[in-house]
Each structure stands twice: as C-alpha cells, then as structure tokens.
Design a protein that fits this description.
248 residues, alpha/beta, 8 helices, 5 strands
Amino acid sequence: MLKTDTHPEIRRAVVLLSGGLDSATAAAVAKAEGFRLHALTVDYGQRHRFEIEAARRVGRALGVEEHVLISCDLRSIGGSALLGTCDVPKDRSDERMSQDIPPTYVPARNTVLLSLALAKAEQLGAGDIFIGVNAVDYSGYPDCRPEFIAAFEQLARLATKLGVEGKVGFRIHTPLIALTKAEIIRRGAALGLDYRLTHSCYDPDAMGRACGRCDSCRIRRRGFADAGVADPTEYQTEAGPRASPPAL
C-alpha cells in the first residue's frame, strides 16, 4: 500500500547507503537538509561484503528512521571483478584509472539500485532519493554521470503510478556529483561524519582491512591527504593510522 505524508513539514528521503565514504556523506547531507532518512542497502553479491556492515553502522550513527536490506544477487549475471568474475586491479596509475571503464564496473548496477530505491520511495509516497555518485574523482563508471541521473529522474516520473498521476515529482539528489574526493571528505567532516564507520576497499582481507592498492583505496587515500584530514582507514599496507571502526 502506498503511503503519503499528511503533514507537509515532514520530508522523507530514500538514501542508497552502501557503507562507502560517498554514500555515507550523501546520507549525512540529506539529514542536514532536514530529511527523515529511509536507508536502502543492497546485497548484490559483492566481494567486499564488509561494506554491508559498514552501512548498518552508518545508518545507526545517522539515526535513520528505517533501514531496509535487499538481497539482489547479481553474481548470476557476472561481468565484474566485484562479483568475482576476475581479479580486482591494483596499483593503477591516475592516467590508467581515467582511460577506460575498469573491470570493477558492475553491469547496470546504479540502474538496478536506483530502481529499488524508486520502488521504496513510491511505497513511502516520497519523491526524494539520495545517491552518492561522483563524476570527478571516480573510476570512469558510466552510471555516475549527470546525464544518467537526469535520464533516470525522467524515467521515475514516467514509470510510476505517483509520477504519472502527478502526485509526486521525483528528484534524484546527487549532492557530491561535482565534488572532488577531498571536497567530499571536508563536507562530511564538517557535518560530523565519522569516516571510521565507512568501508571503501574493493578487495579487503579476511579481517576487513583495506588493501590500499585498488582504485577505490587509492582515490580514498589521496582524498584524505588532499583534504588535510587524518585517514582513519585500517590498511594492509603502510598507510597512516590504523583505527578499527567503533562498535555502535
């Protein structure tokens, strides 16, 4: 059954919360803007499954009103290093990372995730969806671009009952899309976000320690350095302070 808020001052938003640095920051921004948060985390069979628990930690820290975990195993489709199809690339140069779409790209992942978030938003009668995509310091994923977000926003209006009836004007919020990783970290730090709670590594060890060498780790490490913020990440390699995420 679809819900609608009877009080206009109540603003609800569905936040795609992966447990990574970007999604956590986007959620913190949504909270700072006055939204009541409904977090959605998707277990799609990713090899870096520590991020799912990280999402739970972040959700508790931000006081989300509801946290939904959906299982949508994409390993049967495959086609990505994050799904175990091949090895996660390591030690790639900045030039190499910007040249092509890497094997860590998951086919149509953000389309799938946003579709699930859209379904949840329609069930709530809420028109606002937050996603932490970034088109500056990222690994060349096509579904992180503004063009994709604009197209999906239009799709949301055309493919839903509430959209067709004109009851909800769906909006996909991308507060980080034009920021560098350093700017994202500064934004989150200013909002009091504890980045110890997050997990970004594509190939952590059995203890959850970040490899420090995959594209995601390299971008994250450089972001903290450029932001002038201490990196709390526990790396397998020599990389600054090691601090385990606090239990909540």
